[in-house]
UniProtKB/TrEMBL annotation:
GO terms for biological process: methylation. It comes from the Bacteria. It comes from Cohnella lubricantis. GO terms for molecular function: methyltransferase activity. InterPro entries: RNA_MeTrfase_FtsJ_dom, SAM-dependent_MTases_sf. Keywords: Methyltransferase, Transferase. The keyword Transferase applies. Residues 181-270 form the Ribosomal RNA methyltransferase FtsJ domain. This is Methyltransferase domain-containing protein.
Length: 341
């Protein structure tokens, strides 16, 4: 029987727990870092079955999980902590030998764990090397996850795909690329990966609520032609871009020739029902089968209900392919939709 350490965006653990409770009969859930990290017990459900089911239909709010291979009392003493980590890692000698190992160390704010993430990694890496493993940051065969909570130290070894994300705790980090116009751009970069939707595969995009132009700039970098709609100004660096057309309009007032775009993106910070009406009105501007990436604001009290309602509303014009709270989403989730034929 395996238990897991599970993580969501701050404040959203109750919804991640609710999703798991609905999906896994008999699941037991208990908070570790309030609102963000919790322990999941799934009774007799085999590890592979759980992971296959979660990967097939990813929960919206669960960002990351890893199986607990070792649970020991937490200590504030560096030597005792290093020894506890080392003794578990030595039990994994067979799996580690000749393999690339990512060591990911996290702690809750109230944990007495005596190391930073980097120091924790440095404490474990020599043991991994001694066992014939190659400590790496990316493209690992195995991830060795360490999570230090208030009372216990949890360690586990799993394949990257079994964690739902190969980033520590699912915290996706992008290098701040040169010329990045807004932090909002990270949302589209993350959606591109999370939805496995290379943006350079599109030709003509409609960007609703585009200013100051973070999403538009990502699309332009991918070689896409962009029609940006926003009454607000775009960033001066985008002025005169040969593949960018900026319409300074309210998106509700526009219409386009049928099939003008193969991609619609929408990051309007507005009531999600209004946004849905605007996007659905513009659906014919997309080619049949054209894709949409839409931010859905969670401004009401019951996020799961809001998402269920909006999924139904979007379903009139679109197939809703995925709904995911990305690491870069704050009080929102991101939808991947496809225009119905
Ligand atoms: C969060 S910002 C978008 C950031 C943008 N995605 C980026 O990467 O820079 C939301 C934008 O939506 C625009 N907006 C809100 N309602 C709109 C509407 N009805 N039509 C067009 N733009 C709208 C706002 O003017 C604002 O610039």
């Amino acid at each position: 029987m395996t238990d897991y350490i599970a993580t969501s965006n701050p404040g959203f653990a109750p919804y991640a727990m609710e999703e798991l409770r609905r999906r896994i009969p008999g699941a037991k859930l208990s908070g570790l870092a309030p609102g963000e990290t919790f322990r999941l017990s799934v009774g007799g459900l085999p590890n592979e079955e759980l992971i296959a089911s979660l990967r097939k239909e990813e929960p919206i709010f669960l960002r990351h999980l890893f199986p607990i291979g070792s649970e020991t009392d937490i200590s504030s003493d560096p030597e005792a902590t290093a020894a506890a980590m080392e003794s578990f890692v030595r039990t994994l000698a067979d799996q580690i030998a000749g393999r690339k190992i990512a060591i990911q160390v996290r702690k809750s704010q109230d944990s007495p764990f005596p190391f930073s993430s980097a120091e924790g990694r440095d404490a474990v890496a020599p043991v991994v090397r001694e066992l014939g493993g190659d400590p790496v940051a990316k493209d690992a065969h195995w991830i060795l996850s360490v999570y230090a909570a208030k009372k216990s130290l949890y360690i586990g070894l799993s394949e990257p795909k079994a964690n739902l994300s190969d980033w520590p705790g699912g915290a996706v980090r992008f290098r701040r690329e040169e010329g990045l116009i807004s932090r909002a751009a990270f949302k589209l970069l993350e959606a591109e990966r999370a939805f496995n939707l290379p943006l350079d595969g599109f030709v003509n995009a409609l960007d609703l609520g585009a200013a100051p132009g973070g999403w538009s700039s990502v699309l332009l970098e991918r070689g896409v032609k962009v029609t940006a709609v926003d009454p607000a100004e775009m960033h001066p660096s985008l002025e005169g871009h040969p593949r960018l057309r900026h319409l300074r309009n309210n998106a509700a007032e526009l219409s386009f020739a049928p099939g003008s775009f193969d991609l619609l993106v929408c990051d309007m910070s507005w009531d999600p029902h209004h946004t849905c009406r605007i996007v659905s009105e513009l659906a014919p501007a997309l080619t049949a089968g054209g894709k949409g990436i839409i931010t859905l604001k969670l401004m009401y009290k019951k996020p799961l209900q809001t998402i269920a309602d909006l999924t139904e509303e979007y379903s009139e014009a679109f197939d809703v392919l995925k709904v995911k709270q990305l690491f870069h989403n704050r009080e929102e989730v991101t939808l991947l939709v496809r225009r119905k034929p």
